[in-house]
Each structure stands twice: as structure tokens, then as C-alpha cells.
Amino acid sequence: MSCWMPGCPALSMCRGLAALPITCLERAKDLKTRLGILLHRPELGHRSGSSSKLQLGSRRRNSSQEVLEWRESFDQLLKSKSGVNAFHTFLKTEFSEENLDFWLACEDFKKTRSKTKLASKANRIFEEFVQNEAPREVNIDHETREITRKNLSGATSACFNEAQAKTRTLMEKDSYPRFLKSASYQDMSRQAASRGTSKRSHT
């Protein structure tokens, strides 16, 4: 807008702007740029939200596949973190979660590298799970218990191998089949299967 007439508002504005220091004009431009960025941020947020939804969808598909794989073998269940959590929750209902807790403690024990820590951890695991009338005593035979006790004198990462194997077999033969038949797992597998069917119908 331009005007040559005296008293024109546009002319007054132009004169006013010309009188302003250059730094003020630069600040005004900077402010305009920042406002433009802020106005576009909701759009950016929308895009990142869409991306996170896609990632969440991907995780759901992966977990659905995992749930169905748990019934293939006990190994598949133990390989899955969410599978171990679901199995642990089920074992609590049967008051036998100490078997899985012992197996997990043995897995962690095998990763110990320090000989000092190895010995102290071995004694702690033995006292908690293996010795007679332990607070969370696992169901193993007397012979295995005694072999494990002797192994403590020269603790190595393998000193619980036999007791761990016996406990694992017990879970695989006894608790695992009941877990697969449980209402909680049946419900999870139905949901997983329906999500899989829904996914295929949309592709």
C-alpha cells in the first residue's frame, strides 16, 4: 500500500518504521519467524504422533505373534520376556512361582564373572531355594540337593546346573501344559489370533 497524500495513514506508518532503529526491525523479523515455527508445530506433532502409533501397532503385531509362539515349546516361552511374565503370573495362582524364580536366579548366576560374587550368590540361592526347609524351597530330590550342596565348596557358574535342569523339567511337564490350558492364556491367544486375522484382512 502506498500513498503520496499528506496525512495518509500508510505514509505515517512508513515514516514511523523508518525512524525505528535497525535492531528493532531485525527483532520484529525474528519474532515473525519464531511465530511461524510455533504455528507449524502442531502439524509436526501430528506427524510424530502418527509415527508413534505405527511403532505401537508394530509392537502389538510382534507381541501377538509371540503369544501364539509360546504354545510351540517351553523354550519359546522362556525366550520371551512377556512370556516369562505371563507364566510367572500363572504360577502365582498355583503357589509354585518359586520354581521359575529359581530357574531365573540360576540364569542370572551363570552370568556372574567375579569369583567372590559367585560364591556369595551361590550361597544365597542355595539358602533361599535349595536347602531343606528353605523359605522358597523348590521340589527336587534329595540326591540332587546333596550334589548341589557339595558344589558350593568350589562354586562355579555350573554348580546349580543339575538342580536347575530338574526344576525346568518339572515346569515343562507339569506347570507349562496347565498354563496353556488356563483361561488367561486361552484369552490371550484368542486375542492374538483375532489381531492376526484382522491384520490379514486389511492387507
UniProtKB/TrEMBL annotation:
<dbReference type="GO" id="GO:0016020">
    <property type="term" value="C:membrane"/>
</dbReference>
<keyword id="KW-0597">Phosphoprotein</keyword>
<keyword id="KW-0449">Lipoprotein</keyword>
<dbReference type="Pfam" id="PF00615">
    <property type="entry name" value="RGS"/>
</dbReference>
<comment type="function">
    <text>Regulates G protein-coupled receptor signaling cascades. Inhibits signal transduction by increasing the GTPase activity of G protein alpha subunits, thereby driving them into their inactive GDP-bound form. Plays an important role in the phototransduction cascade by regulating the lifetime and effective concentration of activated transducin alpha. May regulate extra and intracellular mitogenic signals.</text>
</comment>
<dbReference type="InterPro" id="IPR044926">
    <property type="entry name" value="RGS_subdomain_2"/>
</dbReference>
<dbReference type="GO" id="GO:0009968">
    <property type="term" value="P:negative regulation of signal transduction"/>
</dbReference>
<keyword id="KW-0472">Membrane</keyword>
<keyword id="KW-0732">Signal</keyword>
<dbReference type="GO" id="GO:0005096">
    <property type="term" value="F:GTPase activator activity"/>
</dbReference>
<keyword id="KW-0734">Signal transduction inhibitor</keyword>
<keyword id="KW-0343">GTPase activation</keyword>
<dbReference type="InterPro" id="IPR036305">
    <property type="entry name" value="RGS_sf"/>
</dbReference>
<protein>
    <recommendedName>
        <fullName>Regulator of G-protein signaling 16</fullName>
    </recommendedName>
</protein>
<feature type="domain" description="RGS">
    <location>
        <begin position="73"/>
        <end position="189"/>
    </location>
</feature>
<keyword id="KW-0564">Palmitate</keyword>
<dbReference type="InterPro" id="IPR016137">
    <property type="entry name" value="RGS"/>
</dbReference>
<feature type="compositionally biased region" description="Polar residues">
    <location>
        <begin position="183"/>
        <end position="196"/>
    </location>
</feature>
<dbReference type="InterPro" id="IPR024066">
    <property type="entry name" value="RGS_subdom1/3"/>
</dbReference>
<feature type="signal peptide">
    <location>
        <begin position="1"/>
        <end position="19"/>
    </location>
</feature>
<feature type="region of interest" description="Disordered">
    <location>
        <begin position="183"/>
        <end position="203"/>
    </location>
</feature>
